[in-house]
Design brief:
Helix content of chain B: over 70%
CATH class of the largest domain in chain A: Alpha Beta
Helix content of chain A: 25-40%
CATH superfamily of chain B: ABC transporter involved in vitamin B12 uptake, BtuC
Structural class of chain A: alpha/beta
Strand order of the largest sheet of chain A: 6-7-8-3-9-10
Structural class of chain B: mainly alpha
Protein name (chain B): Iron complex transport system permease protein
Oligomer: heterodimer
CATH topology of chain B: ABC transporter involved in vitamin B12 uptake, BtuC
Distance between the termini of chain A: 37 Å
Radius of gyration of chain A: 18 Å
Order of helices and strands of chain A: EEEHEEHEHHHHEHEHEEHHEE
Strand content of chain A: 25-35%
Main location (chain B): membrane
Strand content of chain B: under 5%
Shape of chain A: globular
Shape of chain B: globular
Order of helices and strands of chain B: HHHHHHHHHHHHHH
Pfam families (chain B): FecCD (PF01032)
Number of helices of chain B: 14
Number of helices of chain A: 10
InterPro entries (chain B): ABC_BtuC-like, ABC_transptr_permease_BtuC
CATH superfamily of the largest domain in chain A: P-loop containing nucleotide triphosphate hydrolases
CATH architecture of the largest domain in chain A: 3-Layer(aba) Sandwich
Number of domains of chain A: 2
Membrane topology (chain B): Multi-pass membrane protein
CATH architecture of chain B: Orthogonal Bundle
Chain lengths: 251, 318
């Protein structure tokens, strides 16, 4: 379980994340939603110890993320941030292999290679595996990064806007894949995501943030309601039931 | 395997050519004839010079690669980041304050200065909003200019410009037995760089990726900058500045093979050695019996290549 207690991040006097206390359940796919500037990405980065907290603490399976050795944590929790500019010229296969770094320190065993092949196949990157990252489209590169993170094979996987750069077809297959990683591989997947309907359809649990605080949390059925969404995003919503899915419109 | 082929087919012939290029008549014929003078020149001058070229070339190429990975910028190398100029200032400080120090201690002082200069460069980079990747080497070259102006000022005041000039322009003609062995130290650093190759590649993905993969980013940074400073100091103290080498070789190898350093570092080291050998042999033959210092030859080739890199980027961006 990821336990977040009283976590704050302030720049000067301005709080970006303001005393957040939250327990993220083990297993399933949890989406963090909210308007721009709600502090979602900042919170995610602090959970993954990429950013120091101003106050509070985060533990993953009881391990304090700021005190646990980096390599120990790297075998339990991985993160993919958005806007990854990698200047190093690596092939897709090289990049995915570095997902095994916490396990092998660069000297890949048979088991590592197996994970690499699996991740490449899982993201359908077989044909691109020998290509350099700078020769790929934004969407292909995003898939390569996701393959790398999955190859790290951690119980907890965090993604900041994983659908960035993806067209509809690839966005849907990416969400299905992440949901499958949660249901089939038993991983705890936590996303920061903008598209409320993607969150509604694929999440097991939704956490909504606004101005650095948690405003509400619950199952998609509890969150995807016109009045709740209106409070979160500050714009009118209509919620329709199509098949068994609740779809929000706000256009 | 292909690397071995490259070494046997390119590097070894170049090294042999280097042994037999120069003013004194040293050739297989004179050696077999038992010409004592030829043997002496070979052992005292040509062999040390050739080894020094190989060690310095591979060291500077590897140092350039590490800097490019750590700064995440293709245009950075010890001579475009203030590192070399800082090492020069260190040498001047030693010559002024403690001229009696053994050469190894001189090198350590130069290394400390080189490290401090590089850290200053990185600190400036953190403070300046970078709108373009080209800003990075520009800042480095300006910083280098400022540091070498300080060096020149004190050298001028204390009448030491001549002896300093000998350190600052890369010239292997004065390399003799007993006066290049520091470069083995640079070679040891190169080997350490190879052992830590994967760490540098991971660090090259950026701090977030590196941290997420469980790497202690700051300690890799420290290790890398330590290696770069030591190599630069060893090369500057034993032969003088070898500019642009750390720019040309890593970029060419990266274009061909990418940046997975465990695979590419041996190629970078071997190609760096080969390029310096070519430039030094050219410097010895173009204007024989006079010599053009290898630093000058590399300066010409390197600045041309630098322009090519810049123009290539622009045409890609457009």
């Amino acid at each position: 379980m990821i336990e977040i207690s009283n976590v704050s991040k302030t720049y000067g006097a301005k709080p970006v994340v303001d005393g957040v206390t939250l327990n993220l359940p083990v297993g399933g796919l949890t989406s963090i939603v909210g308007p721009n500037g709600a502090g979602k990405s900042t919170l995610l980065s602090m959970i993954a110890r990429l950013m120091p907290m101003s106050a509070g603490s985060v533990t993953v399976d009881g391990l304090d993320v700021t005190k646990t050795p980096g390599d120990v944590l790297a075998r339990r929790l991985s993160i993919l941030r958005q806007d990854n500019h990698v200047t190093a010229r690596l092939t897709v296969r090289d990049l995915v292999s570095f997902g095994r770094y916490p396990h092998s320190r660069g000297r890949l065993t048979k088991e590592d290679l197996h994970h690499v092949d699996e991740a490449i196949a899982y993201l359908n990157l077989g044909e691109l595996s020998g290509r350099f990252l700078d020769e790929l489209s934004g969407g292909q590169r995003q898939r390569a990064f996701v393959a790398m993170v999955l190859c790290q094979n951690t119980d907890y996987v965090l993604f900041d806007e994983p659908l960035n750069n993806l067209d509809m077809k690839h966005a849907v297959s990416m969400m299905r894949l992440l949901a499958r990683a949660a249901s089939d591989l038993g991983k705890t997947v936590v996303l920061v995501i903008h598209d409320i309907n993607f969150a509604a359809v694929y999440s097991d649990y939704i956490v909504a943030m606004q101005s650095g605080r948690i405003v509400c949390q619950g199952t998609p059925d509890e969150i995807i309601r016109a009045d709740v969404l209106e409070t979160i995003f500050g714009t009118p919503f209509e919620v329709h039931t199509i098949g068994s899915r609740r779809i929000a419109t706000f256009y | 395997m292909r690397l071995l082929l490259f070494i046997l087919a390119v590097l070894v012939p170049l090294a042999i050519l280097s042994l037999f290029t120069g003013v004194s008549n040293v050739s297989p014929a004179t050696l077999f004839a038992g010409d004592a003078r030829a043997v002496m020149v070979l052992v005292e001058s040509r062999v040390p010079r050739t080894i020094a070229l190989i060690l310095a070339g591979s060291g500077m190429a590897v140092a350039g690669t590490i800097m490019q990975m750590l700064a995440r910028n293709r245009f950075v190398e010890p001579s475009t980041a203030g590192t070399v100029e800082s090492a020069g200032l260190g040498i001047l400080a030693v010559l002024l304050l403690a001229p009696g120090l053994p050469v190894f201690a001189k090198m350590l002082v130069a290394a400390v200065f080189a490290l401090a200069g590089t850290l200053l460069f990185l600190a400036i980079l953190r403070r300046i909003p970078l709108r373009s990747v080209l800003m990075v080497p520009l800042i480095g070259i300006m910083l280098g200019g400022v540091i070498s102006a300080i060096t020149t000022f004190f050298a001028y005041r204390y009448n030491m410009q001549q002896s300093l000039g000998a350190w600052m322009s890369g010239d292997f003609s004065a390399v003799l037995r007993g006066r290049y062995e520091l470069l083995w130290f640079s070679f040891a650093m190169t080997v350490i760089a190879y052992i830590a190759a994967d760490r540098f590649t991971v660090a090259g993905l950026g701090e977030d990726f590196a941290t997420s993969l469980g790497l202690k980013y700051t300690s890799v940074m420290a290790l890398g900058l330590g290696i770069v400073s030591m190599v630069t100091a060893a090369v500057v103290v034993s032969a003088g500045m070898v500019p642009f080498l750390g720019l040309i070789v890593p970029n060419v190898i990266s274009m061909i093979m990418g940046d997975a350093l465990r695979r590419t570092l041996p190629w970078i080291a071997a190609s760096g050695a080969a390029l310096v050998l070519v430039c030094d042999i050219a410097g010895r033959t173009i204007n024989a019996p006079y010599e053009i210092p290898v630093g000058t030859v590399l300066g010409i080739i390197g600045s041309g290549f630098f322009l090519y890199l810049l123009l290539r980027r622009q045409s890609r961006a457009a």
